[in-house]
């Protein structure tokens, strides 16, 4: 499905064509400068409300962390988006979500299947269910005529991903994938610099994702994404963001991939003497263990959003840890995903890229280096520096220079809300070009991930990517 009018014309139709602007990768970008620093701001479009005659309507499947993030766009922009339905099996989450969005009782559902027992009653469906529950609701929603915003990973297997793409093509609906880094001003700026030719032709990319050790233990050992059979491999569940942003920055097809990695630390043979199956079972080394569930959840009160707990007081948390997966010893879980992995990629025109996912770090935040024929880029999401070989000039931006708009404080460097905004526009205008992360655009980075995992399991064998969709 392709619109007959341009992105600029589309924006004019919803009341954003009057400012002096240039069209950028996330929409309209007002060029500006501050004290000699070459910088771009996204303020103009964000200050102007969209001239919708009425908001689009959406149903959220899964009222956990990500569901609340994207639905939060409706709370800040009620003239653009109205959440009118929710499916969530955990009652207090469903109740709280329904209260926040004023959802009528007849539009509150326990599971996603219940939503589709009703005739279509909204414009779009936002799917933020666990990874294993992406395929079913996505296929059904598209069939019933809904536009879809689908959390990554698209599905648990390449065949399922391809099925969803074929379903989208069959019914002609908009399907956006939540590759939010494409919408983060930091990466938008990086992409803009690359495409401008300021560093010449891209030669190679080095990209590094430090997961942070407690985040690793919470999400990928004890948590929802620790077991690849219940979720997806680490390269998909966590790092398809990274394979996707590398593919988007390079802008050319990936040809070959190889990968190495393993589960090094979080396994039974590494359990210290005196440890127990649960941190609450009298473990004699709990006080000195960096991954103690008592320290993480009850004392520091970190990462509580995934615990099925309405009240986060210490007593309630401690009681839950006695039975919850999050109370388990990190060395005695059912986890099988890697805690470190490297991926090598060869792109068209002999461009090479390397990616490293490291679960055992004291810090988070992605680091990226782009090497070109006439310059390079070095960035860590807090700042970015570009060096020009020809002039010997160096330009530096901080994150605030790049992202000074109204979404500066939101998740993924502002990418979460900008994705939601662009999806709303895409649905309203029935124009998928409003999104940079349609399912078609996101397929190759998923194939890179699936092939990388296959390579890892085959001892690092070089595999072809060869996207044919």
Automatic annotation (TrEMBL):
GO terms for molecular function: nucleotide binding. Residues 58-177 form the Gfo/Idh/MocA-like oxidoreductase N-terminal domain. Gene3D superfamilies: Dihydrodipicolinate Reductase, domain 2, NAD(P)-binding Rossmann-like Domain. It comes from the Bacteria. It comes from Snuella sedimenti. InterPro entries: Gfo/Idh/MocA-like_OxRdtase_N, Gfo/Idh/MocA_Oxidoreductases, GFO_IDH_MocA-like_dom, NAD(P)-bd_dom_sf, TAT_signal. This is Gfo/Idh/MocA family oxidoreductase. Residues 187-377 form the GFO/IDH/MocA-like oxidoreductase domain.
């Amino acid at each position: 499905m392709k619109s007959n009018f341009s992105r600029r014309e589309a924006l004019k139709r919803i009341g954003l064509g009057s400012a002096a602007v240039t069209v950028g990768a996330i929409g309209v970008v007002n060029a500006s400068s501050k004290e000699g620093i070459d910088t771009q701001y996204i303020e103009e479009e964000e200050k102007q409300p969209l001239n919708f005659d009425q908001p689009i309507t959406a149903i959220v499947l899964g009222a956990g962390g990500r569901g609340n993030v994207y639905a939060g766009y409706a709370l800040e922009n009620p003239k653009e988006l109205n959440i009118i339905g929710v499916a969530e099996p955990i009652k207090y989450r469903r109740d709280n979500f329904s209260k926040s969005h004023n959802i009528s009782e007849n539009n509150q559902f326990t599971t996603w299947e219940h939503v589709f027992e009703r005739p279509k009653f909204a414009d779009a469906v936002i799917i933020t269910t666990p990874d294993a529950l992406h395929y079913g609701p996505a296929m059904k929603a598209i069939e019933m005529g809904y536009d879809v915003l689908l959390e990554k990973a698209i599905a648990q297997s390449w065949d399922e991903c391809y099925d969803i793409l074929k379903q989208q093509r069959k019914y002609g609906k908009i399907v956006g994938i939540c590759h939010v880094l494409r919408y983060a001003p930091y990466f938008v700026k990086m992409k803009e610099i690359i495409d401008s030719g300021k560093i010449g032709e891209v030669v190679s990319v080095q990209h590094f994702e430090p997961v942070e050790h407690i985040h690793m233990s919470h999400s990928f050992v004890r948590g929802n994404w620790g077991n690849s059979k219940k979720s997806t491999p680490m390269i998909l569940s966590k790092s398809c963001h990274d394979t996707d942003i590398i593919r988007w920055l390079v802008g050319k097809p990936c040809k070959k991939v190889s990968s190495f990695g393993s589960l090094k630390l979080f396994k039974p043979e590494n359990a210290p003497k005196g440890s127990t199956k649960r941190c609450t079972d009298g473990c004699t080394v709990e006080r000195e263990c960096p991954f103690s569930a008592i320290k993480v959840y009850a004392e520091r009160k970190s990462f509580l959003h995934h615990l099925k707990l309405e009240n986060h007081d210490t007593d309630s948390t401690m009681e839950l840890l006695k039975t919850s997966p999050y109370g388990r010893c990190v060395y005695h879980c059912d986890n099988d995903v890697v805690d470190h992995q490297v991926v090598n990629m060869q792109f068209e025109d002999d461009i090479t890229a390397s990616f490293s996912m490291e679960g055992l770090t004291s810090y988070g935040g992605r680091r990226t280096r782009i090497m070109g024929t006439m310059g390079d880029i070095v960035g860590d999401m807090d700042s970015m520096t570009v060096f020009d070989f020809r002039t010997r000039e160096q330009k530096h931006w901080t994150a605030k220079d790049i992202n000074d708009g109204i979404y500066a404080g939101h998740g993924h460097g502002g990418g979460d809300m900008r994705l939601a905004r662009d999806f709303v526009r895409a649905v309203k205008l029935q124009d998928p070009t409003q999104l940079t992360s349609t399912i078609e655009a996101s397929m190759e980075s998923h194939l890179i991930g699936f092939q990388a995992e296959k390579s890892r399991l085959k001892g690092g064998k070089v595999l072809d990517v060869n996207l044919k969709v």
